[in-house]
Amino acid sequence: MTAAVFFGCTFIAFGPAIALFLFTIAREPLRVIFLIAGAFFWLVSLLLSSLVWFISVQISNKESAAQQKGLLIFGVVLSVLLQETFRFAYYKLLKKANEGLLTLSQEETMPISIRQLAYVSGLGFGFMSGAFSVVNILADSVGPGTVGIHGDSQHYFLSSAFMTMAIILLHMFWGVVFFDACEKQRWWAVAAVVISHLVVSCLTFQNPEYVASLVPTYVIMFLMGVWAFYSAGGSLRNLKLCLTCKDKDFLLANHRAR
Amino acid sequence: RDSPIDLYCYCGNSALHNKITSESLYRELWSIKVVDICPNLNVVFFCFAGVNCNSVEKKIYVNLNYTIPCVRLLNATHQIGCQSSLSGDVGVLHVLESEENLDWVLSSGQTPPYMVILESALFTRYSDLKQSIMMKLKEGSSRVAGVVVVAPSTNPPEGFSPHHACPNENSGVYSDSYDPALAHCNATLWNPLGSGLSYEEFDFPIFSLKEDNDTQVIRQCYQEHNRGGNGSNPQYPLCAMQLFSHMSAVTDTATCMRRNDINFSLSPEMVCDPLGDYNVWAATRPLNTTTKGHKMFESVVIAAARLDSRSFFFDVAPGAESAATGFIALLAAAHALRNVTQAAQPNRTILYTFFQGETFDYIGSSRMVYEMMNNQSVVDLDNIHSVLEVGQVGLRPDSKLWLHSDPVSRRNDSVNQELVENLRLAAGTTGVLVDEPSTSQPLPPSSFQRFLRARPIPGVVIENHDSRFSNRYYESMFDNAEYLNVTYPPNLTPEEQFEQPLEIAKALTEVATTVARALYVQAGGSESQLDSINADPQIVSQMLYGFLVRSNNSWFQQVVPSELASHLGESQSSEPTLLVQYLLANLTGSVVNVTQEDCQKQREHEKDEDSNYMWVQGAANGTVRESFCVRSTVHLSKALSPAFDLREYTSQDYSTWTESRWKSIKGRIFLVASPDLEKLTLGVGVGVLLASLFLTYIISSKADILFSSGREPATATY
């Protein structure tokens, strides 16, 4: 395909992430730092899982298709578990760092709340995983050809871009829910995050039946979004107030509270 | 060196092919594998390919394995050949089944440009070049992205020659000053089938493909995607092809040689190379090679043949009849003369010369004559007694050998008569029918013309044709072993084929014997010895097999050094120079008992400047080879046009042919998506971006209301 496809797919995959970065993160240096740190933690988890993958492929029987498929499923599960482990590790680190920041700062309150940290680190995870899942594909989308000479669907690029968008947003929601659950020590919620992550990852095994993987992923994304909205302090009432623009008293109330 | 390294393309094989060569001229090829790492894991867990997690590139492109391009050559005034743009030319595949189909490509097709797949019959069948499909495509080149010619398995029965009808028209002896009536083939058109296709310039790439898996994939892809049902327009996605053959040089030799000298960077980029290689020569008596120029009391009879040929495509130059018959006959003659010239040495020396680059305005012979005129050669023109050139001598049943000589020198004196008489005498003893063409007919295109250009030397060119060439495939890819009937029963192993006696070899052996006997008499040998001079039909058969079918055979393995042995391949060798050198050494030289060290230092007991010592592999005895040393008088001499030494790039006298360099030659097929789908993708992308910018702005500006639970005032800082 051509440059049009490249830009189209890039905008689909990273449009929401870029918008979030521009309006909520770019202006505050502390958030940028935590975003990059989150991306780094995701990278380390990838490094570990690829190490394990590399070794296991070497020792496996390359001819046996069944074994290779089993290995792939093992790799996916391992990678998901490692990512969630690193999310927990990052949470622990941020708790420690926040205490340190509190002692350093002259103000009485923390410079960044744990909820904001959850959102920022989730987006960091999303950015990096999105980049790794789609950059290969984007690089090939610039060339003159499109997928299909071996009979594959020609919507490969488009569906990859939509899948990446979902993955980025899901990581953000998972981050918010996961950190909130850790704060409140609701371990069933942590388990729900891990399980939904596993489910989404395994849904990609449905490919190239793109509808079968994309539709459930977007359903899960919507549910996780709602959950994350509530975890972040949102409610139906707030939403109603916001939509009907009856927020003036609250603004005033908030100002007074400060 | 720059090469396409794609950061994200893990499984790409980027090979940098940089070739300096031409058809059968000298070849240096190196290919460096730049990237070949293929980690199995990119991110497994997002990998879209599902279980078969391969590189995306493999899902899009099918690379063609066997591609032969047509490349660009330049001379003093023109550029010929083909090229693609720097990033490769892309076109929708169209398999041309008949000439009527051409209309689709040139006017009615809806999705230009087209990549035309041409069956070989459509490439070769035409009576007039102007009416040929290739020229029609050239004229409509805005709708043509490139052409792929599927090489046929059989030769076209009506004949085909993409060469000039009058080969080497301007570089031979006949000119407006020598004999205007004979110049420009006015008297005889040598190659009437020659269309001049090889000398056209095309601004799209033209490739040749073998009939194999690749062409199967192409045809299948075309059938599945590009054939609309019932004459309707085919629907996207369409099958397309991309060809890369970008040529660095443009305009003419003077321009590209000037650009060769410009060094902007530390590693200078060459854009073209002069065509050139080496001539091979050997003498029946060692000639002192340290002193150049005239040799007192030395008189030589030159026996010449040419080594090169060409075709429309790069590096496909079988030249079976046009070159191989001549040099194989001369090699066999040299072998027949070995014993007799050692036992009963004739008065004159016979100098066997094998010229390279004769197709391109006589590069090899003009160089040798130039060196002889400037005292850079072991002999000079005064030493030459006469010249006997062996041209195309593949004899068919009931055909004769024709003794061509120059009508202009015949007019002046009668020296030619001696050589003709000797040839007739020799032919009388072997039973070959010989005849002379009409007295007004000029010489056919031959190296001897370059000697005549310098001085009226007596000489004869022997050919198998009276006037026009009997070769119907002159300088084309069809002038091959099959045309000479060098074919074998299908059930033979390579070694059995090698030993198989051939019918054509019998006739060629008779020619070789005739040439050998005539040379012996011409050199002043006694006629009583003639019966002992006989060429060996076995050797001729084996040389035909080795030069035309498969260079990797047991005999060639024995007579070459180990460095060259690894270059012997399963097919015809595209560089016969070195093979001819070693064969000539083995056929005319003798085995000497010296150590490898002495042999490589060119000495027997003391330093010997005049002979040439070669350490060759020898016969395989189990796993070890019994290497030995061959002493001969075989030497190489440069076959590079003097125009490049003189830096006269617009020379009228010498060949100015150069070959452009290139970076990569490759082809791949793939599907192209409809422009509508591409626009839709871009539109959706821009829509998603704008929508998310808008939504995020709204949410972030109202974050304090949306996310205010009251329990945690800190969130209000959003």
Automatic annotation (TrEMBL), chain A:
GO cellular component, one term: gamma-secretase complex
Name under which the protein is recorded: Gamma-secretase subunit APH-1
Organism of derivation: Salarias fasciatus (Jewelled blenny)
Organismal lineage: Eukaryota, Metazoa, Chordata, Craniata, Vertebrata
Family: Belongs to the APH-1 family.
Subcellular location: Membrane
GO biological process terms held by the UniProt record: Notch signaling pathway; protein processing
Keywords: Membrane, Notch signaling pathway, Transmembrane, Transmembrane helix
Matches recorded under Pfam families: Aph-1 (PF06105)
Membrane-spanning residues: 6-25, 32-59, 71-90, 117-139, 159-179, 186-206, 212-230
Primary location: membrane
Function description: Potential subunit of the gamma-secretase complex, an endoprotease complex that catalyzes the intramembrane cleavage of integral proteins such as Notch receptors.
Transmembrane helix recorded as keyword: yes
Membrane topology reported for the UniProt record: Multi-pass membrane protein
Subunit record text: Component of the gamma-secretase complex.
InterPro entries xref list: Aph-1 (IPR009294)
UniProtKB/TrEMBL annotation, chain B:
Residues that span the membrane, as ranges: 680-699
UniProt record, GO biological process: Notch receptor processing; Notch signaling pathway; protein processing
Name of the protein: Nicastrin
Membrane topology label: Single-pass type I membrane protein
CDD domains the UniProt entry points to: M28_Nicastrin
Source organism of this protein record: Salarias fasciatus (Jewelled blenny)
Gene: ncstn
Keywords, ordered alphabetically: Glycoprotein, Membrane, Notch signaling pathway, Signal, Transmembrane, Transmembrane helix
Stored PANTHER family: NICASTRIN
Gene3D superfamilies reported for this sequence: Zn peptidases (3.40.630.10)
